[in-house]
Design a protein that fits this description.
With 236 residues, the chain is an alpha/beta fold. It has two domains: 120 residues, Response regulator (Rossmann fold), CATH 3.40.50; 98 residues, Orthogonal Bundle (Arc Repressor Mutant, subunit A). Helices cover 41% and strands 21% of the residues. The chain has a five-stranded parallel β-sheet with strand order 2-1-3-4-5, with helices on both faces. Strands 6-7-8-9 form a four-stranded antiparallel β-sheet, with helices on one face. The protein has a three-stranded antiparallel β-sheet with strand order 10-12-11. It is elongated.
Length: 236
C-alpha cells in the first residue's frame, strides 16, 4: 500500500492553548503537525527533522520569535509564518525583515490561518520546482520557463493548469498527492472543493500524452487517495 507523504508543519508557541487551537484549525488540512513549546526546542527539532513550514510566535520567554527566526535563516529557507499580538507596523516590518515570509495577528480567524498556511505551502512547492528549470524522464521533458512538456520530442498541448498539475506531480516522483492537496496547491484554498476538477484535468493530460504514443501512463491513480507520478528513468 502506498504511503501518503503529508506536509510537515512545526508550531512554536509557549502557550499550550494556542498550540492546541492551531492544531484544531489545521486538523482537516492533511498536514502533519509537530509542536515546540519554546525557541530552543524548535531549533533542535529543525536541525534533526524535515519541516515544510513553521508557525512561530514572537512573544516567548528566554528566546523570542525574532531571535529564533534569525537563527533559522542562517541555515534554512523554511517558510516561516509569524504569530503576533502586536499590530504596530514597525513590529510587522521587523518580523518580515528578520526573514519571516508572512504573519498573522492575534486573534485570528481559522479561515485566515488556513489560507495563509496553504498559500505558503503552495509557494514552497513552486520554489522547489524553480530550482530545477528542467525535469528529464524517459520520453518526457519538462521546461518550466516555457511551460512546455515534450513527449518523445514533440510538445504536448497542455493548458496552463494541466501543465502545473503534471509538473507538480513530476517534481515529486512517487509521492502520493490527495485530491485536496492538489486543489490547494494548483487552484488555491478558496476553490470549490470538487474532486472532479482534479480528475478531469488528469483525464485530459492522459489523453494528450497518449496522442504522442507514449508507451506508459506516468500518472498513477491511488484508489481512494489521489495520484502520483511514476518515475521512469531515461534509458529504462
Amino acid at each position: 500500500m502506498k504511503t501518503l507523504e503529508k506536509p510537515r508543519l512545526l508550531i512554536v508557541d509557549d502557550e499550550w492553548n494556542m498550540r492546541n487551537l492551531i492544531k484544531i484549525y489545521l486538523r482537516q488540512e492533511h498536514i502533519e503537525l509537530v509542536e515546540a513549546q519554546n525557541g530552543r526546542e524548535a531549533l533542535i527539532l529543525i536541525e534533526n527533522q524535515r519541516f515544510d513550514l513553521i508557525i512561530l510566535d514572537i512573544m516567548m520567554p528566554d528566546m523570542d520569535g525574532w531571535e529564533v527566526c534569525r537563527t533559522i535563516r542562517k541555515q534554512s529557507n523554511i517558510p516561516i509564518l509569524m504569530l503576533t499580538a502586536r499590530t504596530d507596523v514597525e513590529d510587522i516590518v521587523r518580523g518580515l525583515s528578520e526573514g519571516a515570509d508572512d504573519y498573522v495577528t492575534k486573534p485570528f480567524a481559522p479561515e485566515e490561518l488556513i489560507a495563509r498556511v496553504n498559500a505558503l505551502l503552495r509557494r514552497t512547492t513552486l520554489n522547489t520546482v524553480e530550482e530545477n528549470q528542467q525535469l528529464l524522464f524517459k520520453d518526457l521533458t519538462f521546461d518550466l520557463d516555457a511551460k512546455v512538456v515534450t513527449v518523445k520530442g514533440k510538445p504536448a498541448r497542455l493548458t496552463p493548469k494541466e501543465f502545473e498539475l503534471l509538473y507538480l506531480l513530476a517534481s515529486h516522483p512517487n509521492r502520493v498527492f490527495t485530491r485536496d492537496i492538489l486543489l490547494n496547491r494548483i487552484w488555491g484554498p478558496e476553490h470549490i472543493r470538487d474532486d472532479r476538477t482534479v480528475d478531469t484535468h488528469v483525464k485530459n493530460i492522459r489523453e494528450k500524452i497518449r496522442k504522442q504514443h507514449l508507451s506508459y501512463d506516468p500518472i498513477q491513480t491511488i484508489w481512494g487517495v489521489g495520484y502520483q507520478f511514476e518515475k521512469v528513468e531515461r534509458g529504462e
